[in-house]
Amino acid sequence: MPAPLLQIDSSPSLPEAVDVVVIGGGVVGTFTAYYLACRGVSVALVEKGRVGAEQSSRNWGWCRQQNRDARELPMATKSLDLWDRLAAEIGEDPGFRRCGLLYLSNDEAEIARWAKWRDFAVTEGVTTHMLSESEAKARASATGRSWKGGVFSPSDGVADPSRAVPVVARGVMQAGGSVHQLCAARGLELQGGRVSGVVTEKGTIRTKTAVMAGGAWASSFCRQLGIRFPQSAVRSSILAVGPHVPGLPDALHTAEISVTRRGETGGHTLAISGRASVDPTPQQILFAREFVPMFARRWRALRPGGLGGWRSGHETAARWRLDEETPMERMRILDPRPDARLVAETHRRALELLPALRGTAITASWAGYIDSTPDGVPAIGEATGVPGLILAAGFSGHGFGIGPGAGHLVADLVTGADPIVDPRPYHPDRFEASAWGKVAEF
User: What is the mean pLDDT of the chain?
Assistant: First the structure.
């Protein structure tokens, strides 16, 4: 895989029984297992490939409150506090730092939207600084341009996608949980209608609670149980340049390009916000109606893709047997081909915006599937019809930053603790009614 990723060892053996099995070793599943293990809950984290290998290592690394939808802002705020404490808790650095996020614009309507969000955020205790023309120019001296305005969110930051999730997985094992890579969960065993076990390719783990945190694979897994979870993914492309160039903003967003410093000396990642390819899949056809509002809002940023998504199997409409090889075992890690034209355009835009990058070279490019719900807000809560199954998926490109809060919330729901945030806006039951007109603003 072209995206950099810290490799970790798995636990030596699969347990016969645990209190909770977490399916999916991305950021949400791994933080869920971590917070459960920290509470003394016996937990096994099972991952079909490598921990953090899909979208959790392929994103920008932003951990932000700025421009969050009102439903996600409380979780974003709590997540930043949890990110702050993580290195001291685990004894290993996940690469998190509150460097602040800088947004620049020459679009007065966009600046007005940011100001409106700032007015809302103040009521939630979030500090955001609107920048005048002179302030924006001063903060953006590396661009050599004038800007009509901008935003600086000083308490936001970034973590390192190449190491954050593997570091947390090590924390799971330190706290007494187990982590099992190259171990696909094929399905669930039910007794009296509720969860009694998780069937993996390496054997069955007896449990009364399973958490489905499988990212882009979640809907096809739920379909095996008769659960209809509307989910659709787009393919996002990103590239890295190096070596590190001093003097650039740590995290910069403009309409043309977004740039992030990756680690202390790791160069910079480049992307165009919102731009993605739509690879047709059977699941997209199945849920096409539910995603009309989302597509109508964002169609300008999307372009037709290829058949890679159909072949990958993560959005299949098929059913599979639990005693045979499944799509998850045939595709251990979703590693789609990046859009070459988009990579070239992204690089060109970056060199135009930031002349200091002209001395760097492209060191890697990669793509990932960003799974979304019809309203762009994650689904977190017990699945209707299958007691003991908690769904935590559909994070719509926001999962990395809010992963700690999401994992903490799932652990709260499992253990009956007071939830870290109000869980009602996230409950998957909302998809039984229409989500039209409720698409997330940001």
Answer: 95
Angle at 288 between CA 286 and CA 290, to 5 degrees: 105
pLDDT digits (tens, 9 = 90+) for 28-79: 999 999 999 999 999 999 999 999 999 999 999 999 999 999 999 999 999 9
**Distance separating alpha carbons of residues 243 and 90, to the nearest angstrom:** 30
Pairing mode of beta strands 20-23, 43-46: parallel
Distance, in Å, from the CA atom of 396 to the CA atom of 297, rounded to the nearest integer, reads 14
pLDDT of residue 146: 95
Angle at 339 between CA 335 and CA 340, to 5 degrees: 120
Report the 3 state secondary structure along the chain: CCCCCCCCCCCCCCCCECCEEEECCCHHHHHHHHHHHHCCCCEEEECCCCCCCCHHHCCCCEECCCCCCCCCHHHHHHHHHHHHHHHHHHCCCCCCECCCEEEEECCHHHHHHHHHHHHHHHHCCCCCEEECHHHHHHHCHHHCCCCCEEEEECCCEECCCCCHHHHHHHHHHHCCCEEECCCCEEEEEEECCEEEEEEECCEEEECCEEEECCHHHHHHHHHCCCCCCCCEEEEEEEEEEECCCCCCCCEEECCCCEEEECCCCCCEEEECCCCEEECCCHHHHHCCHHHHHHHHHHHHHEEECCCHHHHHCCCCCCCCCCCCCCHHHHCCCCCCCCCHHHHHHHHHHHHHHCHHHHHCEEEEEEEEEEEECCCCCCEEEECCCCCCEEEEECCCCCHHHHHHHHHHHHHHHHHCCCCCCCCHHHCHHHHHCCCCCCCCCC
pLDDT digits (tens, 9 = 90+) for 362-392: 999 999 999 999 999 999 999 999 999 999 9
Residue 205 pLDDT exceeds 90 = yes
Provide the 10 A C-beta neighbour count for residue 86.
21
Cis preceding-peptide flag for 243 (omega within 30 of 0): yes
Residue 340 near residue 204, CB atoms below 8 Å: no
**pLDDT on residue 441:** 65
Each residue's pLDDT tens digit, 175-196: 999 999 999 999 999 999 999 9
